[in-house]
Amino acid sequence: MNKSKWVTTDFESLKTLPSFNKEFLLKKDIKKVKLNITCIGLYYPYINNKVVTNNLFMPGWTDYLKRVQYQSYDITNLINKGHNEIKVLIGRGWASADSFGWSKHPYIDRPLLKAKIEITYKDGTKDYIRTDSSWDVYSSYIVSSDIYNGEIQDLNLSSNYIGKVIESTSNIKVIKQEGEDIIKKEIIYPRKMFKDNLNNTLIDFGQNFAGNIEIRINGKKGDKISFIPAEILDKSGNFYNENYREAKSLYEYTLKDGENILFPLFSFEGLRYIKLIEYPDYFSINNIRAHAIHSNMKRTCYIDTGNEKINQLYHNTIYGQLSNYLDVPTDCPQRDERLGWLGDAQVFVKTASINFNTLKFFKKWLHDLALDQHKDGSIEGVCPTIPGHEVEISSGWADACTICPYEIYMTYGDKSILKDSFNMMKKWVDYIKNTGDNPYLFDSGFHFGDWVGTDSPYGSFFGATNLFIVASAFYANSVDILIKTGHILNIDVSDYEDLYKKIVKEFQKTFLKDGLPIGERAIEHSQPEKSTNFTQAAIALILHFSLCEEKDREKLTNALVELIKDNGMRMTTGFLGTPYLLHALTDNGRSDIAYNLLLQEKKPSWLYSINNGATTIWEHYDGISEDGKLWSPIMNSFNHYSYGAVIDWIYCGAGGIKVIKEDYKEIEINPHVDTRLGHLDIKYMTSRGLLHVRWYFQDNATIYEIEIPKDTIAHIKIDNKEYIVNEGSYMFSKGGLD
Ligand code: BGC
After folding, report:
1. Per residue in 644-654, pLDDT tens?
2. Which of 48, 193, 382, 460 is most buried (CB neighbours < 10 A)?
């Protein structure tokens, strides 16, 4: 597309979003026509008034100052011999939003479009139509559209000529699309239309999701339909969306006579309910439905248990992922944030890659992450970064640069992801080494720590765990991953092997005494004098990252169990401790306690949200209290997937599936059964076929049915016996091979 020009217009003077149009005449018989197109902003193309694609949010979200993706479409069927027209609607999107991620026009003041149509004639010759100053600007039916603020359309507006586009220059790198397409797939039908106590007319879709509402209605010119979304109702059953903060998410349509199909093109929202602000009396629930919008990932796992609440938890995790994997792994889809927070991404990556095939999705995002890394190796808390708003550098967030590529490699076996990430990993580790006075600890700077852990006073975002024990534990883990990556890529990492040993030694010297964390013990909402090392999160990290002496494992595990018991058999861990807590227990012989936590129904727990009607994962275990009180609206998302990371324990702990060699070439299956779960049935689609692990109880026996895919070596561990098997179906009963 090099010869095509970037084109734009004077957006500030427009009364609607523009379309950039070009008419062209083709005189010869056509064999094939291809459209290559991109935008710093968002584009939606039509050829001869027909849509080119059903995908949305093209060209996707990258750090537009560094690179932008282009898409390629075969448009042969839309093109005629003779007169043709291409029309491209342009939105501000993430790139040029009036306000996005705390910045005005974060990447660029005005959207830019670049396109090329390549026509191959039957006689073998070619013609090209490229964006340049000959293209026209027209007005459109979209009055305004904004990622956070919603979309306003007037279906009576006709498309009027405004003038010619302006050519512009930009040295932004254009690359072929790396990520998944963004699609609207599932249709979500409304459950009911009703009035709340404040006489608001609400529609309940029965499911929290990210996407858009579609309205099809036979209308009368000038009538209006408008609405705003919400995730929950307040304790009185009334509409509540204060937790959207500044995101207006207002959708407003002025109808034309006859059929109206209303759907936003450049905005999306996270919601379960809508409040209708204006609507004609002929509008009914039959005129409305919704579409979930997300990256087009293939579902790879189905999990079923004998506990309906756990099944709902799994369902909530799936929707949490779909809602937050819209080209970039985000924190939430509703409030004025929706950013690529790294902590959330790394916490959930394993669960995400169990649920869906995330290879392509993460490949693209990890390339962005590598580009966003600062020269000194530091990495901000969000990716793509937001120009004009620097986000803190924090351990556990920046460590996404080691954790995500390694996890993706282990799941899919694609070495290129490690090759592309190795330097980023190394630079991050070196950055930590060179920060502060002690090269063997990460004991300086700002950290989010065990974010929203409940062992600190109510309302605090920071958990009670000492930020530096968390940061140093993640430092060790990142060095460990760097070493493993070096071994896989045949790169000498002996210096880092040495560094790792020193970190572990220093860690033990600084944070542990007689094998236990130094400091006051923290339970829920306890108010330790200052942050402490003696928390559930800290011990989970120590055990899971193997930062203790082997002889002290039992002692630490007992201490962890004591902390949990003292807290009424409930966890206190936040973002960073939660993913490892149940693993730490199971791997150290206390699956019973892991199950207690999984099945706990008093908050903080997973099932508390289920008992309160959650259909996605909450940002806080206690987002809604027993008395209906809500967490502060400044931070209370009901679609924040991080705590959904517990699914990876159901898979790897309860199901016992662990990947030993990348791409499931060698696996361990060591299920941890518990009658309270009733049964467990995991179907995971590997690249070489189905892996099926099922356990259930029959006549006082535990029955295991296991199916191993092609070219996989499986170490099945049941009843203290190990069976090494290949492809095939196996059944075990009480530990015996039938
Ligand atoms: C986000 C989190 C994120 C955090 C940083 C919040 O505003 O929603 O999920 O990781 O900031 O601590």
Report:
1. 999 999 999 99
2. 382
